[in-house]
Amino acid sequence: MSASATGPTPLTGGSDPSHVRLLLRVSYDGTDFSGWAAQPGRRTVAGVLTDTLDRVLRGVEGLTVAGRTDAGVHATGQVCHVEVPAAGWARVGASLVPRLSGLLPADVRVYAAGEAPEGFDARFSALYRRYEYRVSDAPWGAPPLRHRDTLAWPRPLDLDRLTAAADGLTGHHDFAAFCKRKEHATTVRTLTRFAWRREPDGILVATVQADAFCQAMVRSLVGALLAVGEGRREPAWPAALLARRERADEVMVAPPHGLTLVEVAYPSDADLAAQAELTRRRRDPVPPPGT
């Protein structure tokens, strides 16, 4: 699936032929943003993006993102959709990306924009989100050119211990111990990948992939494993927390600046609507261990 910049088409189902749904691929440095979601009086990615799009297309609405990132979190593979006037899209078309480049601040870029396929929803059509968390355990800290997206950890971390702990967390679980619970929201998720690697420059990178994440989940998972990696906790400890049905206060939430959303994956165009409908259904609860 890719954004196409050719010719206007109405919204899914033809409910409003005066508007077009666009698919945008976005990257940003989250350091100076108060997160993705628009907030009165605060600089947010959604606020800046909506205002800039409206300057070009006049009358944009319904900006919807695949993954709402917290303050300080970055993205290289963010995806969103927005409804824009068909007349404005017909006028701007393929020139939208370079126009936005000239108007947006340097810490946010739209690098692809085009009509969304039939049935596409940036949030609900997604198959998974993939994040990476970067950590430097070198005695000198984070590299100067990467200090905005790399956590400087003051103690050595053992890759084998990190890997062993991560292996125990993959699968379909209730991650309540690692989430900031919201009323009437489930904390059940399917963690399909959790892996650590050490890059040639010595930086440790955690890859965390799931169908979706609850608030603070990725940073809490990383925070728990940092305690394991430096030897304060045993590798089996994070998996044992899955038995909890409330937030584990002893789990550190890792700082936001080490985290980057790197990919959002979608099914084929023919399956977009079906995937969106499936995602909208509430996840089945996970029974307590031993039942």
Largest sheet: 10 strands, mixed
Mean pLDDT: 92
Q: How much helical structure, as a percent, in the residues?
A: 10-25%
CATH class of the largest domain: Alpha Beta
What is the general shape? globular
Tally of strands? 10
Give helix and strand order, one letter per element, not per position.
EHEEHHEEEHEEEHHEH
- End-to-end distance: 41 Å
Q: Tell me the β content.
A: 25-35%
CATH topology of the largest domain: Alpha-Beta Plaits
- The number of distinct structural domains comes to 2
CATH architect. name of the largest domain = 2-Layer Sandwich
| Annotation field: number of helices | 7
The low-confidence runs, each spanning 5 or more residues with pLDDT under 50, are 4-14
CATH homologous superfamily placement of the largest domain: Pseudouridine synthase I, catalytic domain, C-terminal subdomain
